[in-house]
TrEMBL record:
Residues 386-473, 629-714 form the Fibronectin type-III domain. PROSITE patterns: FN3 (PS50853). GO terms for biological process: polysaccharide catabolic process. This is Fibronectin type III domain protein. It comes from Runella slithyformis (strain ATCC 29530 / DSM 19594 / LMG 11500 / NCIMB 11436 / LSU 4).
Amino acid sequence: MKNVLHSTSTQWILPLRLLYLICLSHAGFSQSAPLATDRARITVNSIPDYYGGPNLNVLRTDAGTPLRAGTAWIWEKGSQEEPAAYYASMRQKGLNAVRMILFDTWEVEAYQPSAQFTPTDWNDPVYRTRQLARMERSVNYASANGLYVIINSHNKIPEYNETYANALWTYVAPYFANRTHVIYEASNEPMPGIGINGNMDMGAAGATASPRLQALKRTFNIMRAGAPNTHIMVLTPNGISDYGFGTGMGNLAASFAQLPGSVDWTKTSVAYHLYHNDGAAAVSVNAANLRNLHSRYPGWPSENNFPASVSNATLGITDSFRSPQFDNDVYVNQTCERLGLGWSMWNINGQVELDRNWPVMYADAVAKGWNWIPDPTTPDTQAPTVPTALVATNITANSLTLSWTASTDNIAVTNYEVFKNGVSIGMTATSAPSFNVVGLVCASNVSFTVKARDAAGNASAAGTALNVTTGNCPTNFVAEAETNFTTVADVGSNCTVGPSNYAATTASNGLAVGLCDIGDEIKIAVNVFVSGNYDIQVRVRSGWTGSPMHFITNNKYEYRLNDVLRTFTYVQGSVTSVIDVDSYYGTVKLSGMPLTAGIHYLRVKALENWGKVDYVQVNLLSDTQAPSVPTGLTASAITGSGFTISWAASTDNVAVTEYEVVRNGVSLATTSTTSYNVTGLSCGTNSDMTVRARDAAGNWSSVSNALNVSTSSLPNAGSISGTTTLCQGATTTLTSNGVTGGSWTGSNAAVATVNASGLVSGVSAGTATITYSVSANGCSSNTTSTVTVNALPNAGTLSGTSTLTTGTTATLTSNGLSGGTWSSNNANVATINASGVVSGVSAGTATITYTVMSNGCTRSASRSLTVTAPIITTTIVVRARSVGNAGASFRVEIMNGSAATGGTILQNSTTFTNLSTTFANYTFTATGTVNPNQIRVRYLNDMTPYDFEADYMTVNGTTYQTEAASTYSVGFWNSENGCNNAGFLTNSLIHCDGYFHFLATPTTTPIIVRARSVNNPGASFRVEIMNGSAPTGGTVLQSSGNFTNLPTTFANYTFNATGIINPNQIRVRYINDMAPYDFEADYMTVNGTTYQTEAASTYSVGFWNVANGCNNAGFLTNSLIHCDGYFHFLANSSARLSAESLETEPVTTFGVYPNPAKDLLNVTLYSTTDRQVKMKLIGINGAVLRIFPEQIKSGKNTISVPIHQLNEGPFIISAEYDNRRYTAKFSVIR
């Protein structure tokens, strides 16, 4: 349970904190970075009060332990900081905290500016940086060793320089605010002006008016603003005692909390020093003021000194100011341990004081039982040194004293553990190196060892063993009454039962036990070491002068042996003269009493006043009577290696002390019990067992009757069967016909292994013994078999090709054993013959294996063979140049469909750049067989200042004119080289003499249509750009506006189309196709090049007007007409005219007519010599429909070609002669 107490004065602290953080931020102030080893923040816990009062509020570490600290200074002068080794030593000695003393604060207040000292200034960035670095190193040392750090501004007593303290905490508080193992202590004994102890109990009115307390609270508010989560200790008076008021310190804390600024007591506590006692002799107050403070507020004793009782010579110091006794403890630390408060020792300051003073203080803690172990985060793992020089003194028949040289430890030795014959018999109560051993057996050998232990539970190794023989067993001895008695009854009238209770002198060794009153009774312990028959004598007061036999003659004593009433008789002549005042002593005896070894009690009771008992004497009588013979021998727990023999106990006149066990006439051992474990035998062994008994006098009984005992028999392991020869890597199963459930083992796992089921695996060549073992009743047997493992023959490694082309062969070889066999796992891919010749069958992968055999063992070597189809390539040569200026670029692209319509690029050449202005050949080797119709020559830098010309291309040696660019570029066929305006083809290669000329990209394409209205004015039309061939239509990409009310005379109508336009995609569309007017289009001009108008196909019906010499060339469905004339659209016509069938012979070098044609097509061609011509009839998709030869003569030739088998549509016919190829396009109508 935690007590959480808060002050309510919070109205001004939040603005202060915000302003404070803003100022530090503007100053660029940094913070110490947390480390993984920082311990978690301390907490406030509530614990029970040792004296039973209200619970105490205390500080606890993350391990739930109190803070236990030494000190370390951070100082501008002298030794500036402790090294890392000091913090490691503190951890090893069990401390868990260090109080960091900022001693410059003391110097500032002690001297101020003077010749002796110039005050340091926390507002000086050089000083501040240096001091924070020193502090951070120490903070990190503590973190690395699992220690908390209490940073203390150590002002000089009783000064308090608020200005200096506020400057210090302004920078220190936020700098370490994120280090969870750091605690702040605001001041050091600044209490004058407030009062100490009882004077602190001045009430809220007095305390809150104190300027000193107000200054301390202002400093606290600065600290809390800089470190909202850090635990802060406040006030730190120099002592708390129980003089005067008993609640002064608690009331002062309450007054402090009432001043402006909130106090969260879960993160705040009251520090104090313990330099005042708690009322000197009035220790009964039990630290009342201290406990009252902790019952109300959390606190921690941050400083105390060694007590005055510890000499300066012991500590090596000259400081005479010491901590007084507190709560009846000389060492204040032990009070703090007892109350569970924690503590900080001023006299642990640096490595020297730690090593010198720690053992002194810790030894006191151990002695008082308030020692502790280190925190779990700082474990002490170092054991003490081994105890040496073990010796035994005061050796008796049953006891002795052990002593040794003390061990040492890194912290402290807490106690020692003593072992007898390897068994612990106890630990010392303190670290003193001695131990009294009792209860030993007389005349016996005993081995002792000792181990040292520390508070952390670390134990040293055992020291060297000491062997001791105890004293001989006494058979005649005296037990003094005064040292061996206990009181049974004490009437207490005349005196108290006890030794030397009245009388000037006493008997025997100077003492006797007086029985002053009738009814007084004692019992005397007598330790008998050897069993036997004894005479027991008791010496008592027998009388006085004038009546020396009074007590004996009148039976004034009653005797009981082991609580049994016995009659003792007087020993004649045993009465002595006066020994002490008017007393005579005599002896009485009980004869022949059998006593066993051990403690016996003789009770003596007074039947008259003023009796005395001096001592008891026992004397062993001689014994010649042997025990009875042991009987009833039986055997049990029979195994293969032994059994237990038991018998009935013998009897004796005194007592049986031991039995001798004999096997087959040989003595095995003696035992004091009536059974014995026989061990070490073999299975199936017979034993004749006898026993005899002995008493303490050495009298042996006769030997018992013999008992024959047999150990368990061997189980049947049987014989092993199964194959015992196998190959390396193979397995075989062995079986046994013996008892099931046995185990299998092998003699040589490098040759063969065997599992629990008898499965043998061959590992390497050689032999191994396989064993089958069975067990029952502690007996085991086995059977064996030899397994031979043959080595695998060497198949070697395969050499030769790993790849092969279909239809080819290669030879594979092995460097292993010859004469093996070859095989393929996939004959559909590759086959191999007996000589290793492998043949590629089809593309794929096959595994080729070479197998050899030797001694019945086979081994194979394999490799993977990949068979591939022959690599087919297509060589494409493009003859091209740059026009106007050098620098044109192009590449060859292979499409997944017709190059004219585009699609996906399957592969392409690298870019051919910087073309010269003269024609050159550019070669691209394409993968696979390429359809020439899927080849596209693509001009890349289609811009001025250069154009591009492609003359032709050669595909695997066949030359073609360059493919039309379709939608990919705009160009035209140059007519300068005799191509005779062969025109565009949209999806085939053009076979004519010429080259493809690409124009630099225009921003627009001017299209001029020359047209008129026929008969009557008023016809209308528009120009449409299609996304495909204009005759087949498709989607209109763009169009002109409507040209309306055409006159009857021809005129030019212009449409500037956007971008590059393929002339083959231009359509002239007649709009108002009806009487009373028709429409005629003469031609169109595209980018300055004139074309006859494209046939309208299904969009309008018309014919070519013959008036202008066009000779009724007729309709073409998907090409431009290159002739002199104009296109005449008829209004509302639904049929073709008979003029379409006119046969007009063309006048070109190569031509066809009629066009369109129905059943027969005439081809005209000119030749310079007689020769044979190869004719081809080709579909519009590029497929060759027919090839036939024709013999022609020099001059003009006309060839009639039957076409009645062709369907309606466009076709191409070609002729190859004079190393040239001529083509013409024609249409078939049905």
